[in-house]
Amino acid sequence: MTRSDRYGNALGTGSERATEAYCSGIDHVLAASWGACDAFEEAIAADCGFALAHAGLARAAMYENDAPRAKAAMARARALTGGLSDREKAHIAVLGLLVDGRMPEARAAVLAHIDVFPRDALVAQICTNIFGLIGFSGVVGREAELLAYRPVFCPPMARIGG
């Protein structure tokens, strides 16, 4: 059975538990609430080959200022890309640029990714706020670009805590 996230994106896991934990991790990242790392770790425990869960853990570890953990999780995600969909591979590539500190390239990759996969919320959120890749870019006109940035997804109600 093909599993999907809350935004309709197919996921490379057959595990219901991994899917639920991964979606919880995304919810925590989008809500900027504590618990994302734990949720992604739970997804990995349910399916250690779930590449997006490792990539999600890398993103969440960045929020916790844990660069070694982020790099290790991203290395594992990159090692698991065989057989993934184009979206999943691109998702991991974008987050990899972010973890590697290649911000201008990551910003361009997010914008290109969202053009093709507008409902990939974990990637889209990288540019969504004043502290994101657009807001912190230093590029002249970034304020207007940030205001114009509108990924084509409507987040569901957060399901954090219940």
**Total helical segments:** 8
Q: Biggest sheet, open or closed, and with what strands and sense?
A: 2 strands, antiparallel
- Cα separation of the termini: 25 Å
| Overall strand count | 2
Order of helices and strands: EEHHHHHHHH
Strand content: under 5%
- What share of residues is helical? 55-70%
Radius of gyration: 15 Å
The order of strands across the largest sheet is 1-2
Detail the poorly predicted runs: 154-162
Shape category: globular
Notable characteristics:
162 residues; mainly alpha; 2% strand
In summary, what is this structure?
The chain has 162 residues and is mainly alpha-helical. Helix content is 57%, strand content 2%.
Description:
This protein is mainly α and 162 residues long. It contains eight helices and two strands, in the order E-E-H-H-H-H-H-H-H-H. Strands 1-2 form a two-stranded antiparallel ribbon. Strand 1 (3-4) and strand 2 form a beta hairpin. Helix 2 runs antiparallel to helix 3 (51-63). The longest helix has 16 residues, at 16-31. The radius of gyration is 15 Å and the shape is globular. It starts with a strand and ends in a 14-residue tail after the last helix. Mean pLDDT is 87; it is low at 154-162.
SSE order and pairing:
Blueprint: E1 3-4, E2 10-11, H1 16-31, H2 36-46, H3 51-63, H4 67-79, H5 86-99, H6 103-116, H7 121-124, H8 142-148
Antiparallel strand pairs: 1-2
Helix pairs in contact: 1-2, 1-3, 2-3, 3-4, 3-5, 4-5, 5-6
